[in-house]
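We modelled each protein-ligand pair independently. The example shown here corresponds to the adenosine-5'-triphosphate entry; the chain sequence is given first, followed by the ligand as SMILES.
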Amino acid sequence: MADHPIILSIANQKGGVGKTTTVVNLAAGLARQGYRVMVLDLDIQANATHILYRPLEEDEPSLAEVLLEDANLDETIFESNSPGVWICPSGETMVRVDLALAGVLGREEALKRALEDSETASTMDFIVIDTSPYLGLLTVNALVASDQVIVPVSCEYLPMLGLKLFLGTIRTIQRRLNSGLNILGYLLTMYDRRERITFDVERTMKNHFKELIFSRPIRINTHHKVSPSRRQTIFQYEPPSGRGVEDYTRLTREVLQRLELPESVESSETPNQTETQPDAPNEAAPKQQEESTVAADVTESPTSDTSTTPETSDTVETSGDSDASNTLETEQAAEASVPSEPAPSQSEPPSTPPVSSPSSPQASSPTNAESNNADSSPAKPDNNTT
Ligand SMILES: Nc1ncnc2c1ncn2[C@@H]1O[C@H](COP(=O)(O)OP(=O)(O)OP(=O)(O)O)[C@@H](O)[C@H]1O
Ligand SMILES: [Mg+2]
């Protein structure tokens, strides 16, 4: 696709808002559309690594070693469990990075440099970055390296206070470190129509951010809790008609629309998307109905899926001021949390060939997309508006 990958961070310093869930499933969604995708796990919790790959052994290099310049990014890229998605994992040593980077020149740009020096990264269409639930150097590195940021906002509490701090940080980074950083959108997550707070959050967000809110939320769905424990994306865990599949397919489409990219591209370079899924017998599929009757938060009401989304669409309108974040004046507070004085690059990371080249791992690549999602033409974004 592009000669330069689109680098997309999923970030919000509030914990548990659906960052990792969105990273994993948006990455898988983009790969299903034929895009080459790499996930960078910048979170010390390594949740994306656990879902898409596996916990690292103690001596295995991770993104942490890359940032501390002991390892080359190309040597820490692996095939994930999800077809067409590669991962640069996080490990236990990530916890040391914030402190170690603090004394390094160009500390805010360590990730940017590593990506620029990575041959493998340059072959990707998308690099999706998972971030930690705090505004430290790791998150700043993600935002400095990124072209776009998506901000998940959980509909479980009023988010404005935390968002003000976060947006102040983004604006500071835009002004001083990365003028190209763009907020692609705010994503409402854990959307539950039975809960009044959902509408309060939606209204508040709409008032502030208008069309920057993605037109469809990610509905509350216990499958998003279960699928990670099976190391599966929602596309692997749910049947093609699943609510999570529908939500993340729609998000994928809207992301592509906002970036003015084709809804799908030829996937000749992506590994075996038509193969069957080896590690996910989709035993979850038959289970789905039982689970959803037990888990009331999945089904919300006896009504069908289609009854839950239209109101979302209606109530999250797309009009008005796209620069709403300017109404949130917290730059000073944010300044304090952004490390100062961007400095020139410290050293040139070595450039060694990829150990696990994204163009060659097909043989072992577990692939499922088409078989597990016979709907290679996923749910249309707007056809469910009754
Ligand atoms: N739409 C959803 N419905 C129900 N549960 C969800 C949904 N999205 C995510 N979850 C669950 O909520 C929890 C938090 O989600 P997730 O890990 O994606 O958030 P996070 O922002 O990455 O958290 P952290 O800040 O700790 O990294 C997880 O258990 C996840 O499985
Ligand atoms: Mg997370």
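The domain at 6-372 is CATH 3.40.50.300 (Rossmann fold).
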